[in-house]
Design a protein that fits this description.
Elements: E1 2-6, E2 11-17, E3 22-29, H1 33-49, E4 58-62, H2 68-85, E5 89-92, H3 94-106, E6 115-121, E7 126-133, E8 138-146, E9 161-164, E10 181-184, H4 195-204
Parallel strand pairs: 1-4, 4-5, 6-9, 9-10
Antiparallel strand pairs: 1-2, 2-3, 6-7, 7-8
Helix pairs in contact: 1-2
Length: 231
């Protein structure tokens, strides 16, 4: 029994899986969704599956890259559950989990030569992204990429690219004349997509230190300038 938390983007998602399938899922999107909903959703998925915290085998948290605040809330909550229930913590790469979800989303549309490019919006024309083949093998390390019309030229020869995640829709105009690039604008991260990777991590004993683990922010957090006089 693995509790999975996904908070790297505006989506707050909590799932419970048994290593082969998801048993319960709760998710929503919105301002302050993470801080307001995550603990409620955890209680709800456990109750739906008919188990308690002590019956969990591990907790898996989406480690990033993504929203600084969202990642902090997800990791802090995961650590709290692990401390209280004395369970191990696993960190799952956000973009890799998204690739698993997209493979299932595409189904028969996905061809062996296709490439999956999960993206998380990093504002303006920048995205956090990586590249996977149709077998979900990583071909390119995660990077913060400022996208222009030539960003994927080295990947287009013999391949169709699927760009997806909340960083992809803003690229529609940029790549509208490139038939090899398909933009999927209705895809969002979900804790449900963490099932396979979390099961692999549990079987391999691939745990992180509950006390010292930090999310993978990719870029340093830059606080906004306060607008309240005197701060």
């Amino acid at each position: 029994m693995i509790l999975c938390l996904e908070t790297a983007t505006p989506v707050c998602s909590v799932a419970l899986n048994d290593g082969t399938k998801n048993l319960a899922l709760r998710e929503c999107k919105g301002q302050n969704a993470h801080s307001e909903k995550i603990t409620i959703y955890i209680d709800e998925v456990l109750r739906e599956a008919g188990i308690n915290y002590q019956q969990l085998d591990a907790v898996a948290v989406s480690k990033g890259p993504g929203s600084y605040t969202g990642l902090r809330i997800g990791v802090s909550t995961a650590k709290g559950v692990c401390y209280a229930a004395d369970k191990p913590l696993m960190a799952i790469d956000t973009l890799h989990a998204m690739a698993y979800g997209m493979r299932d989303h595409l189904g028969a549309q996905l061809q062996p030569s296709d490439l999956l490019v999960p993206m998380i919006d990093a504002r303006r024309m920048e995205v956090y992204c990586s590249v996977f083949n149709a077998s979900l093998v990583s071909l390119k390390s995660t990077e913060a990429l400022v996208v222009d019309e030539h960003s994927f030229d080295d990947l287009l020869d013999g391949h169709r690219l699927w760009l997806f995640g909340d960083g992809a829709p803003k690229l529609k105009v940029l790549f509208k004349e490139v038939p090899q690039i398909q933009i999927v604008d209705d895809f969002a991260p979900s804790a449900a997509y963490m099932a396979t990777l979390s099961d692999q991590a549990l079987k391999a004993g691939d745990f992180v230190d509950v006390a010292y683990f930090e999310p993978y922010y990719l870029k340093d957090f830059i606080a906004g300038k306060p607008h309240v006089k005197g701060l």
